[in-house]
Design goal:
Elements: H1 5-28, H2 35-113, E1 116-125, E2 134-137, E3 150-152, E4 157-164, E5 169-173, E6 180-185, E7 191-195, E8 202-206, E9 218-221, E10 235-242, E11 251-257, E12 266-272
Antiparallel strand pairs: 1-2, 1-12, 2-5, 3-4, 3-12, 4-5, 6-7, 6-9, 7-8, 8-11, 9-10, 10-11
Length: about 300
């Protein structure tokens, strides 16, 4: 069909008629005058539509299946992410519960020794400032932390602060070979010096070579001048082995530290020393040794008048 003036007028006329019919149909509602024509058209073209639908539906169903599959895959991924997040939250809750226990134990230790502490969390473990056994904590000069402050947790002595930044600090652990702290034996008061040995026990040299020591005896910090770097009375460890005396001027002990240096989390920096030496009061009470049940021996003596039977 050529694009002439007559054809354009015909197209405009058909569009106008179409809009008029649509308007009449909408205003008529269920009683539309075009309802009969619509039914007639449906009867005439219905079989054709069904045939086309039967031919097209498999393709449409396949596309829908692919789309639904993608939606299911997306939902599965979402569920997997939600499951992972839930596990992380549960793990976090378990970790938080552990931290609450650690914090509670640390507060009890601080209360027993009358130590003023600043709580902190270990945020890094590794070599720093040339030391091989150190941790980094999340408080520093902005929190009042200074060099040569004692660090402890609920179990006992952790170490001392060596380097301080604005918001973090480095702690030299008591297990480091360069670490030295003065110690005092529980009850007897024998004085010595403890040195770290890496992942092994602490090595303690008692100044009295004839000191009476046995396995299970416990030690606390002796304390430093002006409480720097160590405050007195912090639990250090328990004697695991007593080296032979050998006639020396000192007595060597192997001491199992109370603190597990490989699993540090919540610690406390002592920012205020106690007014008086707490001595042994920070040490937990020793478990009572069960007493053996008394035994009674009964001896039965046969009567002299008893006669043997035939």
């Amino acid at each position: 069909m050529r694009d002439t003036r007559e054809s354009r007028l015909l197209l405009v006329l058909l569009v106008a008629i179409a809009f008029a019919l649509i308007t009449v149909d909408i205003r008529g509602g269920e009683r539309s005058p075009l309802d009969g024509a619509r039914h007639a058209a449906a009867s005439a073209f219905g079989p054709v539509e069904e045939g086309v639908a039967s031919a097209v539906d498999p393709v449409g169903n396949a596309i829908a299946a692919v789309r639904d599959s993608g939606e299911r895959h997306t939902r599965i991924s979402e569920l997997e992410r939600e499951n992972t997040a839930l596990k992380q939250r549960l793990g976090s809750d378990d970790r938080n519960r552990g931290r609450v226990r650690d914090l509670d134990a640390m507060l009890k230790t601080a209360g027993a020794g009358q130590y003023g502490i600043k709580g902190a969390q270990v945020v890094a473990i590794g070599a720093a400032q040339g030391f091989s056994w150190t941790v980094t904590i999340d408080c520093g000069a902005n929190d009042g932390i200074k060099r040569d402050m004692t660090v402890l947790n609920g179990d006992g002595l952790v170490g001392r602060v060596t380097t301080v930044g604005p918001s973090t600090a480095t702690v030299l652990l008591a297990s480091d070979p360069k670490f030295t702290v003065g110690t005092r034996m529980e009850k007897t008061g024998e004085i010595g010096f403890a040195n770290g040995q890496g992942d092994r026990s602490l090595r303690v040299e008692l100044l009295n070579g004839k000191a009476a020591v046995r396995e299970g005896d416990r030690l606390v910090t002796f304390g430093s001048s002006k409480d720097k770097p160590f405050v007195p009375g912090v639990p250090v460890g328990e004697v695991s082995r007593v080296e032979p005396a050998g006639g020396g001027l000192t007595r060597t002990l192997q001491v199992r530290p109370f603190v597990g240096f490989s699993k540090l989390d919540v610690v406390g920096v002592v920012v205020q020393a106690p007014r008086t030496d707490p001595r042994d009061t920070v040490l937990p009470p020793k478990p009572e040794t069960p007493k053996p049940a008394p035994t009674v021996t009964v001896t039965v003596t046969p009567s002299a008048s008893a006669k043997p039977r035939d």
